[in-house]
Amino acid sequence: MVVTDKDVERVRRDIEDIVRFAAYKEDLNFFYPLFSYVEIYVTDDPSVPTAAAVNKNIVVVNRDFWYKLKDFEKPFTILHELMHIMLKHNDRAMEILREKGALFHELWNIAADGLINDSLLRLGLVRPETFKPIYLDTISNYVKVPPSSLRTMSTEQIYSLLVRQIRRLGAKTSPIPVVKDILPRLPRGARRAWQGGEARKAITKKEIEEGIKRVAREAEGRMAGRGLSGVAREIDELLRPKINWRAFFRTLYSSVASAGRVLTTWSRIHRRLPALYPGYIRLKPPPVYVLVDISGSISDEEVVRFSSEVLGIVREHGGTVYVIPWSDGAWGPFEVKTRTDIIKAIKAGKTGGTVLRPALVLLEKQRVRPNTFVVIFTDGHIFDINEPDTRRLLDRISRKCYVIMVCTDVIPSLPPRVKAFKYKV
């Protein structure tokens, strides 16, 4: 029986619910940008008995398997495959398949699955019942290494342990039954149920609540834990800011007399010896305004990188950080403290042309303090950058603030006080 339009629509609605669930659950919101990047297909091909990651941005699910899943098992299944894509497991798996054969490909799949599934449990997802995923406990019994030690390892390290054990025992088949979910190509006849970019559609508060209730109906209970475990090193490598914001702010602080200084004053009471010593106040650094380009020329990967850099600014600055998303308009400013705040701020804007002036006008209306830091993320293709009004406005702001422009493609002509550098995505 072939995949029908009804099958495609049913899977698409389920994916929409999972997107909402991931976007608004604090421990899972880093998955949200991936839904704007991947495509999800439905197949009835027996070569994909469950679900699989294909190439660099495709997930395929077996229709009959999907229909058997309970609501709380569907996010586990999809997020598992997204982690394969995010950690670029497919590239390494295909390399192993070509060079060493099917057995070693299975071992890599086992190592990747064990680490991913353990991480999903620690992120609060519920252990599936309809199927039996591979966990680190299973791998631990075979390689004789405690699960706590495996959690600190990368996929490559766990794979090496499996290979070493296979060779030591002289085994010719995989020691742990595994359903291969890292495939080289999409099965014939598969139909697309989710297209990258659909995640950017507006989600109303009512839709959010309904989606979360539907997906999490059977997922109540105690959370297995917070944070990523052994896979953290690989995720951090992809989401870690590339710019050394700590060094950047240290340099700027040294040129701003008030930033980070501690002053003593009798207007504050000394906590331990109020009769002998004055209290003290720590002067906060000036705020940071981050102008994020979300125009139509910005790719989903650039949006992910920009959000990671904003999070790096939040972590290293020590003061208030505001985000202003802009395209042919500007929105905000939005104060951000977490990745969730950053994602919500970026989603608040609308894609369009690349016109910088509305963002600069909005920034000037904030009556920013002298020595405020302004960071502009863009691809550099700014439509009005050479218009006199825009240049005068940018020059006026740069005389009062420290302005840098981070460009992913080209560096446009800028006023002399605006610093710019190229950023490789």
Number of beta-strand segments = 13
Alpha-beta classification: alpha/beta
Tally of separate helices: 15
Please give the radius of gyration in angstroms: 25 Å
Outline, from the CA principal axes? globular
Strand residue percentage: 5-15%
Helical residue percent? Answer: 40-55%
Average pLDDT figure: 80
Low-confidence stretches: 211-230, 255-260
List the strand order in the largest sheet: 10-9-8-11-12-13
Order of helices and strands: HEEEHHHHHHHEEHHHEEEHEEHHEHEE
Q: Could you explain how this protein is built, in words?
A:
The protein has 425 residues and is α/β, with parallel strands linked by helices. The protein contains 15 helices and 13 strands. The strands form 3 sheets. A 6-stranded mixed sheet has the order 10-9-8-11-12-13, with helices on both faces. The longest helix is centred in the first third of the chain and has 21 residues, at 102-122. 40% of the residues are buried.
Outline of the structure:
About 6% of the residues have low confidence.
Question: Which key phrases capture this entry?
Answer:
single chain, 15 helices, six-stranded mixed sheet, 15% strand, five-stranded mixed sheet, 42% helix, 425 residues, alpha/beta
